[in-house]
UniProtKB/TrEMBL annotation:
<feature type="transmembrane region" description="Helical">
    <location>
        <begin position="15"/>
        <end position="40"/>
    </location>
</feature>
<feature type="transmembrane region" description="Helical">
    <location>
        <begin position="145"/>
        <end position="164"/>
    </location>
</feature>
<keyword id="KW-0812">Transmembrane</keyword>
<keyword id="KW-0472">Membrane</keyword>
<dbReference type="GO" id="GO:0033619">
    <property type="term" value="P:membrane protein proteolysis"/>
</dbReference>
<keyword id="KW-1133">Transmembrane helix</keyword>
<dbReference type="GO" id="GO:0098554">
    <property type="term" value="C:cytoplasmic side of endoplasmic reticulum membrane"/>
</dbReference>
<feature type="transmembrane region" description="Helical">
    <location>
        <begin position="196"/>
        <end position="217"/>
    </location>
</feature>
<feature type="transmembrane region" description="Helical">
    <location>
        <begin position="108"/>
        <end position="133"/>
    </location>
</feature>
<feature type="transmembrane region" description="Helical">
    <location>
        <begin position="346"/>
        <end position="364"/>
    </location>
</feature>
<protein>
    <recommendedName>
        <fullName>Signal peptide peptidase-like 3</fullName>
    </recommendedName>
</protein>
<dbReference type="GO" id="GO:0098553">
    <property type="term" value="C:lumenal side of endoplasmic reticulum membrane"/>
</dbReference>
<comment type="similarity">
    <text>Belongs to the peptidase A22B family.</text>
</comment>
<keyword id="KW-0378">Hydrolase</keyword>
<dbReference type="GO" id="GO:0006465">
    <property type="term" value="P:signal peptide processing"/>
</dbReference>
<dbReference type="GO" id="GO:0030660">
    <property type="term" value="C:Golgi-associated vesicle membrane"/>
</dbReference>
<dbReference type="Pfam" id="PF04258">
    <property type="entry name" value="Peptidase_A22B"/>
</dbReference>
Length: 390
């Protein structure tokens, strides 16, 4: 009787045990780590760009020749209001193209994905290579690229090459992580208004293509595109050149549009999280981290010293609030997927859990008006406004 009761209790709370599966825990932790690292990487790039601009300004004033090396800030893309509005529409068009014409363009898609993922992996691995090289690897060797950057590029190319040969999920995840960090660090949201427009549009995009696309196209378009493997380019080359052996037997490639995490308790079971469910909320968290740094710098400029974190309000930053909301949203999405036994649009939960607490907190603190329109422009002219005018 005790065994029967235990089995009944397990079946009743099976969804609760499922959300504690290693694959789902890994998805939650790694996605949060990627967002945190990408956000701080973006903030560090912004600080380095300001310091470089200040040194060049001082060199110019002293009559010296300014440095001709390109700033890393030149690679940063700031989204405008129109781009935020058009992004969900463009994503829908791209999704439909992939849905209808994937078979005829899968080789091209695989090659382009490999090239982009190689560049993203190099961006991800560069700080590691710089740490290993120490202080002696900053000198440019090939044009404007330093030795650690070249080493990161070679290491990234090797990882992509092994992925093409094996199609292993771990290498695909490494490429996906590189893409996440690169997009979070190099794409910036200029204001809370643009952030709200972008995330709201993507929420509607995610809900439509996950919940309602099957009524129009007889299948879930989002899941179909995300899980469809592409033919290995090596197979195409082997057929064209009439080669045999390992090249003809190369596995199909699952494209790094998502991260997959295997379960330690259920053999062959994977949890999947789309890159957009990491990158898009990550852009919002990167924005609020930059605003937290701007607000702290403003206080230092006004008070002449760093304010001590005595109160709860000073300890709880906008970044902390949004990161906690992301965790709760991801947890809610996981529970919903287990309860309803169907794919869930993660942005349906992530956007409200990150955006609504942020808007509420900004309103309570009196920062909502500034964050909504021009958050990085100081109210008075001076060095602070010049430093943070992005």
């Amino acid at each position: 009787m005790a065994q029967v009761g235990a089995n009944m209790e397990y079946q009743e709370y099976k969804w609760a045990y499922s959300i504690m599966d290693s694959s789902k825990v890994s998805a939650c932790l790694i996605s949060m780590l990627l967002i945190v690292y990408g956000s701080f990487r973006s903030l560090n790039m912004e600080r380095e760009a300001r310091e470089r601009a200040e040194k060049e300004r001082e060199a110019t004033l002293l009559g010296g020749k300014p440095s001709t090396s390109s700033s890393s800030n030149n690679n940063v893309q700031t989204l405008s209001t129109m781009q935020a509005l058009c992004f969900p529409l463009g994503s829908s068009v791209a999704l439909l193209i992939m849905f209808f014409f994937f078979d005829s363009m899968q080789t091209l898609v695989a090659i382009c994905t490999a090239i982009i993922a190689c560049a993203a992996l190099a961006f991800l691995l560069t700080p590691l290579c710089q740490y290993v090289a120490g202080g002696g690897g900053s000198r440019a060797l090939c044009g404007r690229y330093s030795a650690p950057e070249l080493a990161a590029a070679l290491l990234a190319a090797a990882i992509v090459a092994v992925w093409v040969l094996t199609g292993h999920w771990l290498l695909m995840d490494a490429m996906g992580m590189g893409l996440c960090v690169t997009f979070i660090a190099l794409i910036r949201l200029p204001s809370l208004k643009v952030s709200t427009l972008l995330l709201t549009g993507l929420l509607l995009y995610d809900v439509f293509w996950v919940f309602f696309s099957s009524y129009i196209f007889t299948t879930n378009v989002m899941v179909k595109v995300a899980t469809r493997p592409a033919e290995n380019p090596m197979n195409v080359v082997a057929r064209r050149l009439q080669l045999g052996g390992a090249m003809r037997d190369a596995p199909k490639l699952s494209l790094p549009a998502k991260l997959v995490f295997p379960s330690m308790h259920h053999q062959g079971h994977f949890s999947m999280l789309g890159l957009g469910d990491i990158v898009m909320p990550g852009l919002l968290l990167c924005f609020v981290l930059r605003y937290d740094a701007y607000k702290k710098a403003t206080l230092v400029c006004q008070m002449g010293q760093v304010p001590g974190p005595r109160s709860m309000g000073s300890r709880l930053t906008y970044f902390h609030c949004s990161l906690l909301g992301y965790f709760l949203g991801l947890l809610t999405a996981t529970v919903s997927a287990e309860v309803f036994k169907a794919a869930q649009p993660a942005l349906l939960y992530l956007v409200p859990f990150t955006l609504l607490p942020l808007l509420t907190m900004a309103y309570v603190k009196g920062d909502l008006r500034r964050m909504w329109s021009e958050p990085f422009i100081a109210p008075t002219t001076g060095k602070l406004g010049a430093d943070f005018d992005v």
